[in-house]
DNA sequence: TTGAAAGCGCTAACAC
DNA sequence: GTGTTAGCGCTTTCAA
């Protein structure tokens, strides 16, 4: 066991600059009450010695830990990873969050927690005790789990909830799901579609409701009927297949379908082919999420891009602002996605 | 600014169990010289109070930091992420490394560093000073960068090099690239192919050489000619396209091609289609890496799986063993991949 | 086998 | 504006 000591500490800098530890500390944390010349002198020593504060020591003295914890559902995340279906949200979260953290001298730590387990609180407490993070990012379905949010509140650790309902002004972010669903509807209407079906996602996710509501409201606003045009899946391929089958064999066969995620859209595409329908000739298709795979399906799918990386980056930014006591914008913060046109949408066949 | 204190500290446990801090510390670190009954009593208090040691404090007192740093090339990683071509190695690294870390009470921190920049050392020094990681995982091309390895050696921080040449017994891991390339060759030979082309990867990666060597040796061992059957790309789609074009318009038109990664394989597939060749009828194709996208190409590609997650998990394990002073296996440790059969390989057309 | 004391690197609180 | 002091939670001495 090697006993590792910091090679350059605040003491070295203080000695080199001929000032007290405290002054160096003030410079590091860009506090007030340091004369510019002092500050310059200290900074010169810092640069010269290549000094970087130890986050462990900073944390120990009751200050920040410079650690942000990103919490994800264990079961789902591992399942998605093992399935290797080209879903890249872990990638997006990590890159978006990590890059923003790096900009501010923070680090992102990714952690999996069992939402359904009774041990959520124990697991989370352990992570908090070990890491003392300055902020926590919660994704669905954690974001709506009171066991988690209450615990964080009790520990006074700021947290950002992604894709969850806003509550009491706490940090919350969405990607504008309802507006995006409405956007998809209007895009199809503009192409001439009137019977636009919708495949909803699992009720466990708040955003499933938002997406469905966006579809419903846009349809209603356009004076289009919606009866028999909505089926619910659970975001899995299989559930999408079943929903698509119901939709396409129902009385009011839609000429276009919006699916609440890519897997269900891909399933719908397969079902359509199986039924001898051509996409987009006989059926137009728009999916949600825009994970990499939709570009490789035949036809490449027109999709609603979910700006996961930007959203997580913003969450990090808000958490850091909260740490600094800076004023936060009104919640929820919306990082709106957009419609990416590819080849799965066309005008409906006459008749 | 909230001043956060540990809610349950070693003191609380010591008081609850009626022992000294030291004894609790010994139990936590499962050291010798604690009577079983003492140990049980302390453990009971730990469980009762839900005590978890603060890694900051542990690190401060000269012990471990329980942090493993995974270093990746900034430029490449960001580029791959932005391209969104379905390459999932960040995902694989993160999940493989994180899960193994979690098993041992460690955390994985992902960090990007500019390999080519003169600032590599400065960047790395900063990360080391801030985090004091117990180990570092190096991927290509970092794994071969002496600026990095020398610095880590000087700081006496154990590091694991993935996909790099073994040197002086330091921790190194490979995925058996040469054997896998040979496996692909033999798979094609078994189908009846004799003119098997190879598209090599960038020279900057040691594994490019291994893969090519595996192909070369297997061909030679089978008594097959290799002249004019190898072209070099740089792992990009475009370079694969160019290489495929050269290969397929050369004098010895191959009946099968092995590409050193998926992007170049997909490019080859596209070029073949463009030239009016059918895959696998006129050209069989095997790619390296087996990222999710190859399943969605037409035809789905037979590919060499690279067990990135397992390899990174093993790297973490070895680093933790090194930390504990446990004996390490001979290097390099090989986590061998396998051939995943799909639809891009068939017997060559008679002719 | 156990305990007491010192100190890791840093910042908060207070003095000057 | 700047320096001094105390202490964060833990492990490493060293003493009992």
Automatic annotation (TrEMBL), chains A, B:
Keywords: DNA-binding, Transcription, Transcription regulation
CDD domains assigned: HTH_LacI (cd01392), PBP1_SalR (cd01545)
Recorded GO MF terms: DNA-binding transcription factor activity; transcription cis-regulatory region binding
Glycoprotein listed as a keyword: no
InterPro entries reported in the protein's UniProt record: HTH_LacI, LacI/GalR-like_sensor, Lambda_DNA-bd_dom_sf, Peripla_BP_I
Every HTH lacI-type domain range: 8-62
Record protein name field: LacI family DNA-binding transcriptional regulator
Originating species: Aurantiacibacter arachoides
Lineage, top ranks: Bacteria, Pseudomonadati, Pseudomonadota, Alphaproteobacteria, Sphingomonadales
């Amino acid at each position: 066991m090697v006993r590792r000591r910091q090679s350059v500490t605040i003491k070295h800098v203080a000695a080199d600059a001929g000032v007290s530890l405290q002054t160096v500390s003030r410079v590091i944390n860009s506090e007030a009450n340091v004369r510019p010349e002092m500050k310059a002198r200290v900074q010169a020593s810092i640069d010269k010695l290549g000094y970087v504060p130890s986050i462990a020591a900073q944390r120990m003295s009751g200050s920040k830990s410079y650690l942000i914890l990103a919490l994800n559902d264990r079961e789902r995340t591992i399942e998605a990873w093992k399935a290797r279906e080209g879903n890249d949200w872990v990638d997006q979260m990590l890159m978006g969050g990590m890059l923003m953290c790096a900009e501010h001298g923070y680090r992102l730590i990714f952690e999996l927690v069992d939402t359904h387990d009774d041990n959520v609180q124990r697991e989370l407490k352990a992570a908090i005790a070990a890491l003392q993070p300055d902020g926590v990012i919660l994704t669905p379905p954690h974001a709506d789990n009171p066991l988690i949010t209450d615990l964080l509140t009790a520990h006074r650790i700021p947290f950002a909830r992604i894709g969850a309902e806003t509550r009491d002004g706490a940090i919350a972010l969405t990607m504008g799901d309802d507006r995006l669903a409405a956007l998809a509807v209007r895009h199809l209407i503009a192409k001439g579609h009137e019977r636009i079906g919708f495949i909803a996602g699992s009720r466990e996710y708040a955003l499933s409701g938002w997406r469905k509501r966006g579809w419903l409201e846009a349809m209603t606003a356009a004076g289009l009927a919606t009866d028999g045009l909505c089926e619910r899946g659970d975001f899995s391929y299989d559930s999408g297949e079943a929903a698509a089958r119901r939709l396409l064999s129902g009385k009011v066969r839609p000429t276009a379908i919006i699916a609440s995620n890519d897997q269900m859209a891909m399933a719908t595409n397969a079902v359509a082919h199986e039924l001898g329908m051509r996409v987009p000739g006989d059926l137009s298709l728009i999916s949600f999420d825009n994970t990499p795979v939709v570009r490789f399906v035949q036809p490449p799918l027109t999709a609603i891009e979910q700006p996961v990386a930007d959203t997580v980056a913003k969450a990090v930014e808000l958490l850091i602002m909260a740490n600094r006591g800076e004023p936060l914008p009104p919640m929820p913060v919306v990082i709106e996605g957009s419609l990416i046109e590819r080849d799965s949408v066309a005008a409906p066949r006459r008749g």
